Amino acid sequence: MARLHRFAVSSALLLQSLAFASPEPCLNGLCHSTRNRLASRTVASELGLQLSANCNVYGPDDTQFGNCTARYDPFFTPKIQMVVQPATEEDVPKIVQYASANGIPFLAMARRHGMTSTLSEFDGMQIDMSLLDKIEIQPDGKSAILGGGVFAKNIMEKLWDAGYVTSSGSTSCVGLLGPALGGGRGRLEGYYGVVSDSFLKLNVVLANGTAITVSETEHPDLFWAMKGAGHNFGVVTSLEMKIYPRGVDTWYYKTYIWTQDKLEAVFEASNAFHNDGNHAGHHLKEMAFNMGSYTMIPSISETEGVIFWSFVYRGSKEEAQPYLDAFDAIEAVSTEDGNVPYPEIPGVSGTGMNSALCDYGLNHVHYPAGLKVWNVTTQRQIYDLYNEKIREYPEFQRTTVNMEDYSHEGVDAIDPDTSAYPWRDRGLLSFIAVTYDPNPALDEAAIAWAQETRDLWNAGAPDLLPSTYVNYAHGDESAESMYGYEPWRLEKLRGLKAQYDPDNLFSYYNPIIPNMNPRSTHESNFQGRQIGAKSRSRGQ
Questions:
Q1: For a Cys staple, 460 with which of 330, 375, 376, 405, CB 3.0–4.6 Å?
Q2: Where are the beta strands (DSSP E) in 59-153?
């Protein structure tokens, strides 16, 4: 066990421990090879002396270690040697300085929802940000200070009760910053853009442990990079973010379940709804978000998937109804609707705390594609493949093929050159999640199915270069598909990388510069999957 609350030590022990924990540079880099496998107990005794009273250090033998490292998706799992929980923002630079001085790789996270294969290259210290959960509305009512560990449900509820909203991801249990540093898609983007468009300033700890403030006036180039490629540059300990009057008291939602014979009609109606990819007109910002999935519901059919679809509208049923008439005309197995406050919308539309999206422990093998319009023929091919694979592999019954359609007015209104987020023209976001109990014998089949589905989407949009929303990336996609094909984008990002993280310590989450010498590799952690080398050569 290696748990730290506060160390009461003699002055002699204090001096001895601080000597071991000295942040002085390594002579000839030797400590990077001699001290990078420190036991968690040693880290607790050395680092703990420098941290605030309520910090924790957990090792694998500690009873809290499992709770701190459990993941939504264990398919690609970072190897965690120890967990350090900072209790204050001031703790984080000290943790990073200690880890860097001792050659210990470090990875900051809050809710552990990352799904990319590149995470499995990590082997070191997890910095658990979950205790940094402050939410402070500023006196002018125009912004809030948020801790680096806050997550969607808490933000939505606290701001709503005070009369405000802000942008966040669509799933209640997911952290704010994980999605936001990759741009961040959410239900309010029709009004306010992607989540990172609401950033005002970020408090960032760099790889060398330096704490800086990043905004439009302080380190503006880094501020640009943090809005779409932020995982590559630092640990965000807190941020100031725009907030907005909450508006209407309730949002209207409606969900449909259709059988497969209605597939063509559903996607034709959806394309008409957003004018075949032109976001002006019908796809107004009030119809904030609609999403569908192919899923198995045995009470309806044990052999064929059904089409589940949900719409959410910021307003009343009467206001929403003209936009739903075309979908009401398609005979459904069942529908459900109602008006609820905004924080309850995730729960009624399939992304709440009790949804499968917040159920930890199952494998979710995924591949995404960004689109402008649904190719109806492709959607039929993907559906038929879904049924075929479920019949072949009954263990994959919980798999879903997901189609997300966001209101886009607020995203389109922002100059794409003002942030590192490159995909403002892709309103449709699709992905497959092949879901099953961990079983290595099924991994190859899961990857093959997911890849085939992604390839069908891309083949069905031959006029588009393949795009990858970085937060949904599998991890073997090219850097261009994640960060943009315009040459200046990656050139700028790599130049900033050389300036702010020259040793590429932030290289475990879909990096712009691959980690070419990971301590933990795909091959060693996941024998037989044969994807490690491909992942490490992204973008080359």
A1: 375
A2: 79-85, 106-109, 123-128, 135-137, 143-147
Per-residue model confidence as pLDDT tens digits over 342-396: 999 999 988 888 888 888 889 999 999 999 999 999 999 999 999 999 999 999 9
Question: What confidence score (pLDDT) does residue 150 get?
Answer: 93
pLDDT at 101 over 60: yes
Each as own residue / partner, the long-range contacts of residues 30-33 (CB below 8 Å, 24 or more positions apart, any chain) are 31/101, 31/102, 31/103, 32/102, 32/103, 33/103
> Residue 352 and residue 378: Cα distance in Å, rounded?
29
Count CA atoms within 13 Å of residue 524 on its CB side. Answer: 10
pLDDT of 269-288, one tens digit each? Answer: 999 987 755 544 445 789 99
Cα end-to-end span (Å), the chain = 43
For residue 143, give Cα distances in angstroms to 110, 167, 240, 518: 22, 12, 6, 40
Helix, strand or coil for residue 80? Answer: strand
Distance separating alpha carbons of residues 51 and 54, to the nearest angstrom: 8
Residue 37 φ then ψ, to 5°: -120, 35
Q: What is the pLDDT of residues 10-51, one digit of tens each?
A: 223 333 333 334 444 444 444 555 577 788 888 888 998 899
282 in the Ramachandran plot: left (φ > 0), alpha (ψ -120 to 50) or beta?
alpha
Instruction: Please give the Cα distance from 338 to 348 (Å, whole number).
Output: 9
Q: Has residue 514 got a pLDDT over 80?
A: yes
* Interior/surface letters 251-267, b for 16+ CB within 10 angstroms, e for the rest: bbbbbbbbebebbebbb
| Separation of alpha carbons 135 and 279, rounded Å | 34
Residue 518, pLDDT score: 58
User: Residue 295: what are its φ and ψ, rounded to 5°?
Assistant: -150, 160
- Give CA 436 to chain center in angstroms: 20
Residue 323: partners with Cβ closer than 8 Å, 6 or more residues away: 273, 282, 284, 287, 311, 313
